[in-house]
Amino acid sequence: MTTTDSTTEPDETESAVETARRQLERAAAHLDIDEGVIERLRHPTSVYRVSIPLERDDGSQEMYTGYRAHHDSVRGPYKGGLRYHPGVTEDECIGLSMWMTWKCAVMDIPFGGAKGGVIVDPKDLSSNEKERLTRRFAEELRPMIGPMRDIPAPDMGTGPQSMAWFMDAYSMQEGQTEPGVVTGKPPVVGGSYGREEAPGRSVGIVTREALAYYDRDPAETAVAVQGFGSVGANAARYLDELGASIVAVSDVDGAIYDPDGLDTGDVEGHDESPGMVSGYDAPETLTNEELLELDVDVLIPAAIGNVLTGENARGVDADMIVEGANGPTTSTADQIFEERDVPVIPDIIANAGGVTVSYFEWLQDINRRSWRLERVNEELETEMRRAWTDVRREYESRDVTWRDATYIVALERIAAAHEARGLWP
């Protein structure tokens, strides 16, 4: 495990929960909060582990392991994604559930944090197998989820169709349609317009606000985006429309680079057409690692966690980093960027558009009234700007990083709720 006073020790083994706890402790050091509250927030309320039997298309049966971590619900029902990935672990789910708690609080959304997933490579499943796995996972989780208890959402390896299957399986067992049990569904079954684009759109909005704070003109800004999937592609296209020059993007196979700027509308995202990015006809091709070290104004890591580490942070040549992925920067890398005065705008505000529009979707579901896309985007703009203003005030009033300022906003709200509600004997 990495120590925060070392900038040379490799930190690729730092888990999400270790990073989340370090960030909690840094923010807590700036606030006068009861240690009992901080100790409670270091740990999840509960973690569920379930076994999921799956009948494969050839008639054989396999067992898969799934998790659902509940971190904190003092401000409202648990909220967080479900991912299908071979690297899912209990610790990862706990750490990500902690980040969801902070994310909901910094956006002032009345939800708590949760996260879950199944240890499986979704590429190894047929569509029918994925449906059967999802429906059985929903049944295994049914005692601990619900529109007022825990509301899952899509994540890596899942999407709107998975959420539709999940909602249908839950509803069939409940004997009535319960669209509010999950968010990220197709609009035809209670999903919200704009939900899929929301995390990337919020990254674009926050990048725009950060550029304005540092008196940078988007039209004179070069941007590199690692991970041209749902988040990265939508962030890149949003910034492209503002006039920024998107000079490099990547998928899992590699990166493309054009110093004059890429046409982000012509480059299809990895979710839209796998392999399209690295196979695109661009002036230069790069590795994902080389993209991270390009001389650009803004770097947006929007792929996976722990890509900016103690080993490569000094080679990053961007003037600013805006986190699109969850946890792309390790603690050691964070310290190096702080020493180098490189602003890092954290994930828990930058990509919070996903949970924000999920909240809008939940409101639409429980009220049985849908919103137009224009309203969704207007409301998202309002909420993102409000959250940015709250974080900016803390940043300006304290000698802290952007990450610390964001966590301070979140932690103050969570602690106030804990103190108001007290401790059940």
Automatic annotation (TrEMBL):
UniProt KW Cell wall biogenesis/degradation keyword: no
One GO term (biological process): L-glutamate catabolic process
Site (Important for catalysis): 155
Record keywords: Oxidoreductase
Domain Glutamate/phenylalanine/leucine/valine/L-tryptophan dehydrogenase C-terminal: 192-422
Keyword Oxidoreductase part of the UniProt annotation: yes
InterPro entries on file: Aminoacid_DH-like_N_sf, Glu/Leu/Phe/Val/Trp_DH, Glu/Leu/Phe/Val/Trp_DH_C, Glu/Leu/Phe/Val/Trp_DH_dimer, Glu/Leu/Phe/Val_DH_AS, Glu_DH, GluDhGdhB, NAD(P)-bd_dom_sf
GO MF: glutamate dehydrogenase (NAD+) activity
Active site: 115
Family as reported in the entry's similarity comment: Belongs to the Glu/Leu/Phe/Val dehydrogenases family.
Assembly and interaction partners: Homohexamer.
UniProt-recorded name of the protein: Glutamate dehydrogenase
Organism expressing this protein natively: Natrinema salifodinae
